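4.2 Preliminary Data

To establish feasibility before requesting continued support, the project team ran the inverse folding procedure on a target of 359 residues. The structure was first converted into the token representation described in Section 3, and no sequence information of any kind was made available to the design step. The complete token record follows.
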């Protein structure tokens, strides 16, 4: 088959009734230039979801289940605390379904996230970074109670892991149905991806080792310290092992209840810490070497996957989660070394021919 024929398409074969119908079925993409020889390394590219992250799945699940059980009334305002991706996903879902949305978010997270949510009609209430994730969480609770709004509760709701059990995990099982899958690598934010996928892998692919990662300077799980909780499953206090870290979307300053299932039932085989700068470095390498644009969380997960790949047996097959796209990190360290103006080399190229020269 020639190159032209190989890259022609004939459409998806059906029409979509809503942008929400396009959530899921994200591709597992082979890494060809960075992977060590003798190992097959794939990434599950969650930025193929319509709002650019794995949290599109969660956002749709929360709203759909709340509509079915009657806890969300027509036209009722939705409120949630988020580092960005869940808020962006909820903004998309609420816009498509006609719900007002208020997001609470610490002011330490990237400006692009605020703008994306506001672009889709959400109101964004910022909280002081010194109050960390628990501060924005408590603000969302206050607003919900004061106004009678629907609190999405991404950190506690059963709808979180369930959507990954029903979609993300099924996609992985289907994509790797006829071949090995030796390792599955992920980080955690709420813990929903880990808990939902691990339920299925433990049952249907028990040979697959599940590798979990967290920031090296915020090892909440690695510390062994038990998270204090209220009766409603919400965190009672900030976790003592937490420190601010650059891996946005990962590891808030408490262990979410959704993640606790994976801890209690030992749904992972290995826990590997990763430094934030390594996440930045590997995200840049993925972009430059494979043409795959992901954020710092994706880079950090990939850094751990590369550690596994370097020590894995010949023929091993590894799947790494990439939670989101890199474009919502423009104002973060991920892009700080990327120049806006022409470099000397680019300026020299401009001067090398006579026309359209910018001095």
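Position-by-position output of the design step:
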């Amino acid at each position: 088959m020639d190159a032209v024929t190989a890259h022609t398409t004939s459409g998806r074969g059906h029409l979509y009734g809503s942008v929400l119908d396009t959530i899921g079925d994200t591709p597992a993409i082979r890494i060809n230039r960075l992977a060590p020889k003798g190992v097959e390394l794939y990434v599950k590219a969650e930025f193929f979801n319509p709002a650019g992250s794995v949290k599109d799945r969660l956002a749709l699940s929360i709203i759909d289940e709340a509509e079915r059980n009657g806890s969300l009334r027509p036209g009722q305002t939705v409120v949630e605390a988020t580092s960005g991706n869940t808020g962006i996903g909820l903004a998309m879902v609420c816009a498509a379904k006609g719900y007002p949305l208020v997001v609470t978010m610490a002011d330490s997270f990237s400006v692009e996230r605020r703008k994306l949510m506001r672009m889709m009609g959400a109101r964004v209430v910022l909280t002081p970074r010194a109050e960390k994730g628990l501060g924005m969480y408590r603000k969302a609770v206050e607003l919900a109670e004061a106004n009678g709004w629907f609190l999405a509760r991404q950190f506690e709701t059963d709808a979180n892991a369930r959507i990954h059990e029903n979609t993300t995990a099924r996609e992985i099982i289907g994509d790797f149905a006829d071949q090995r899958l030796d390792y599955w690598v992920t980080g955690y934010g709420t813990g929903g991806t880990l808990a939902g996928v691990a339920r299925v892998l433990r049952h249907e692919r028990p040979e697959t080792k599940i590798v979990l990662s967290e920031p090296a300077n915020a090892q909440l799980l690695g510390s062994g310290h038990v998270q204090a909780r209220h009766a409603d499953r919400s965190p009672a206090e900030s976790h003592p092992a937490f420190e601010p870290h650059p891996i946005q979307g990962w590891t808030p300053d408490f262990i979410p209840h959704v993640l606790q299932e994976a801890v209690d039932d030992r749904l992972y085989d290995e826990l590997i810490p990763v430094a934030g700068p390594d996440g930045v470095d590997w995200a840049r390498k993925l972009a430059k070497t494979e043409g795959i644009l992901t954020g710092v969380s994706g880079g950090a997960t990939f850094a751990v996957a590369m550690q596994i790949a370097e020590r894995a047996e010949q023929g091993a097959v590894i799947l790494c989660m990439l939670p989101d796209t890199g474009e919502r990190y423009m104002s973060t360290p991920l892009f700080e070394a990327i120049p806006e103006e022409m470099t000397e080399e680019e300026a020299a190229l401009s001067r090398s021919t006579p026309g359209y020269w910018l001095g």
